[in-house]
Each structure stands twice: as structure tokens, then as C-alpha cells.
Specification:
The longest helix has 14 residues. With about 290 residues, this protein is mainly β. The chain is built from 3 helices and 16 strands. A 9-stranded mixed beta barrel has the order 1-2-5-4-3-6-7-14-15. Strands 10, 11, 12, 13 and 16 form a 5-stranded antiparallel β-sheet that branches.
Length: about 290
Amino acid sequence: MRYLFLLLPLFLFAACEDEVTIDPGFETPQTVVDAWVTTEPGEQTIRLSQTQSFFTSANPPGIVGAEVRVCVGEALPVCYTFADQGDGRYVYEVGFGESLAQVGDKVALIAELPSGKTVMALTQVYRPAIVDSIGFAFEEEQLGLDSGYYAQIYAVDPVGVGDFFMVRTTVNDTFSNRINELVLVADAAFGPGTSSDGIPFIFPIRFAINRSDSSGSIMSVIRGDTFSVDIWSLSPQAFFFLDDARTQITNGESQLFSLPVSNVRGNVVDSQTGEGVLGFFNVAKVVSIGRKF
């Protein structure tokens, strides 16, 4: 009998469990434009999709049947039609030795959606960084870093304030796509408003091309590792869009000081109403370099 009295509270607590259904408040899907293209030869892709409920585990549904064009120039623009792939992707193949646009060109994105709505965005191709080399240097063991060899990218910011870049690294055919591996550069430093104009990228940025493990720790280089680094030029608006998006994605790490989640404002608008549309359009001039350790 004594054991029955001890077990009785457990049954009472178990009986108090209720299933809770959370209403995400999702009603009408919104259009999302993912248009990060380059001037370089090869396949250039623009993605059109719709938002969905936060608790939906499937990929966002693509928008098919749209007419997507990228037009270069102002007075007599040259327009390129991106072919519908049937899954929300729209592709244009830039031929070998050709270029979608040149540095300084004004570029427009126009997407006529099957709903009858037209969305558009305007941008400009900004100048690239000056890339020099990839180096490998031995580092002694220190806080947060094991002893070993590590890679660095040596690149220089052009003279003149207002240059923005994104550094993209692939190691042994694996693209570094964790959010902590997103490397944004403003005039050779992490953000605008510094005195870093016209100088080599600062050390933390040079060092950021190294791989990290699942916990975010930097991994040393192993003999035979091959590094391929692309530096994309960004418009000022693209830099701040990516920086704000990174803040939103990593907001959970802020704990007590986390900010309310909100959509990051892009440069795409509804051509009829002028209202903002989710997503961004940037055309990058890319400089690339690779090296094997």
C-alpha cells in the first residue's frame, strides 16, 4: 500500500499532459526572389518560390510558368531570357568567353508571374577585389585553435571607400555553407566606417577561408587539401541584406538579448504597387583563385 501512495502522484502528473497545437498565423503565401547571379560564363540561376508555414518541413514550393528576364544597360538594354526549368529555377547559360554584364553596368531583373503580377529589381555591377594568392602558415596552439597549418587568402581592397565583397570557399569539392562560414567584407574589414580602405584584407578575413567543424571550431589543413576561393563583388544593399540575414539566422545564439524575428528587406518590388517583395537581386563580378596544400 505504501508503494501505491508513492506512485499515485506520478499517475496524476501523467494524466495532466495535454496536446498543444500552435497556430503559426500563416495565411497567404508570399513571393520570394532568390537572384544571386554573376557576370561569369556558365549557368546562372534565379529561383522563384513561395513562403510557407514555419512548421512545414518540405522545401518551399517553386513558382513555375513565369517569364524571367535580366536586362543590361539603360538607353537600349540587352535582355536575356532565363528558361523555366519547371521547378522554380530559371536558368541562362553564359557562353565561354562571354559576360552577362560589365563593371559599372546597370542591370534590371523583370519577372512576370503566372498570377499576373510583375516584380522587378535594379542593381549595378560593382568592381571586384584584387586577388593575389592563397598561402599556408603554421600556427601554434592557442585558445580555440589547435597547432597546425592553416590557409589564408591574400586579397586587396581597391582604393576608394565603398567596396563590398562576399568570400566563398570550397575545400576538396565541399562548399563552406555554414552560417558561421559566411564571410562578408567592407573595404577590407568586417564593416563600413573604418580606415581600412585600399589595403589587404585584415587577418581575421584572410583566415576565415579555413573549414570549421559542426561546433564552429576552425580545422587545420591536411596534406592534399585543395582550396578554391571566389570573391564576389556586392552592391552596398546586398552587403547589408546578407549581414541582416545572418543576424536573423544566428539570433538564437543571442539568448536573453535575442531580437524579434522579421523579414529582411531586399531590393525587389511589385512593379504595379511599389511594395517590397521578399528576396534580393545582385550581379557579381567574381575573381577566383585556387591552391593545393
